[in-house]
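wait is this the right file?? whatever heres the structure
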């Protein structure tokens, strides 16, 4: 009964909060995806525990309510991020470095291997087919962040040359724009919004560039508290906020960043959240301001799981 009351209060609180960010973190060691309330740091359980083997990346399609997980042992796995239900798997799509959703259930990925000239690939029907459209580049690189901007163009991060490339999906096999060589210095994977692409430097500072000009916007933000020993992912939150995932001497850390009023510099704000449940973080995705119905579904799913374990 106490657990039911707690779930009910959590759902009610969701109705009053329009700025809730649901943080999803893929965990290599524990073979699952963890859920956190970004505003409070509250742990909201995990899913995929009996399905995932080597989860290396994650993205979400909020329109469909799906979390796509790139798993080297299983392939591409689609799950309902509220209930944890497995919707489908495709073991022909693996070696995934970064993922991003396309419209109508499609996905795009960069490959988790260095020294390949395939910058990224798109999959129109990943639930039923492994057929991909490959976008190549003459430069071999360690390809990182991938995503689609508001103009419909594809952006990909070249981590070897520290630059951003933009491709037109209407048939270009070479980049429209090869910009800012040596300028987008970032080590983590990141995210693409309608007009910006973000990532993290090795020390946890956030770097931001325009998706259209491929030039840096503003300057690199300040460093988060503590010396970060590794960085994993950057992702956009609601409004002018973003999130960074990394580690320091205290373990896996989640840091909120805020975009400046007069420029596009993202700087850390607030207290870091320690993700003590995470063994080895490999990726992060953010569900921005879920509707109250999603929060209620998540609460009921947690209750059902508790009842099952009690039995």
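ok assuming it is, sequence goes like this
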């Amino acid at each position: 009964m106490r657990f039911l009351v707690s779930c009910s209060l959590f759902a009610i609180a969701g109705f009053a909060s329009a700025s809730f960010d649901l943080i999803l973190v893929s965990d290599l060691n524990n073979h699952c995806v963890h859920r956190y309330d970004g505003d409070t740091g509250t742990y909201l359980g995990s899913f995929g525990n009996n399905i995932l083997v080597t989860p290396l990346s994650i993205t979400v399609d909020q329109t469909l309510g799906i979390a796509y997980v790139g798993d080297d042992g299983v392939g591409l796995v689609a799950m309902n991020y509220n209930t944890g239900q497995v919707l489908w798997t495709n073991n022909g799509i693996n070696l995934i470095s970064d993922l991003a959703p396309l419209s109508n259930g499609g996905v795009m990925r960069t490959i988790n291997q260095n020294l390949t000239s395939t910058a990224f690939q798109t999959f129109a029907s990943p639930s039923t087919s492994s057929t991909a459209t490959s976008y190549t580049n003459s430069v071999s690189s360690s390809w990182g962040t991938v995503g689609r901007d508001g103009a419909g163009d594809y952006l990909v991060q070249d981590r070897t040359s520290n630059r951003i490339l933009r491709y037109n999906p209407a048939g270009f096999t070479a980049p429209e724009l090869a910009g800012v060589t040596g300028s987008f210095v970032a080590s983590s994977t990141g995210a693409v919004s309608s007009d910006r692409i973000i990532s993290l430097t090795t020390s946890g500072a956030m770097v931001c560039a325009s998706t259209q000009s491929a030039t840096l916007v503003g300057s690199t933000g300040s460093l988060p508290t503590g010396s970060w020993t590794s960085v994993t992912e950057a992702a956009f939150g609601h409004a002018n906020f973003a999130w960074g995932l990394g580690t320091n001497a205290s373990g896996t850390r989640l840091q909120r960043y805020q975009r400046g009023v007069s420029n596009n510099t993202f700087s850390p704000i607030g207290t870091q959240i320690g993700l003590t449940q995470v063994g080895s973080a490999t990726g992060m995705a953010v569900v921005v301001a879920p509707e109250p119905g999603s929060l209620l579904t998540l609460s009921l799913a947690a209750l059902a799981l508790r009842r099952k374990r009690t039995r």
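Confidence is low (pLDDT under 50) at residues 1-17. so i think its the right one actually
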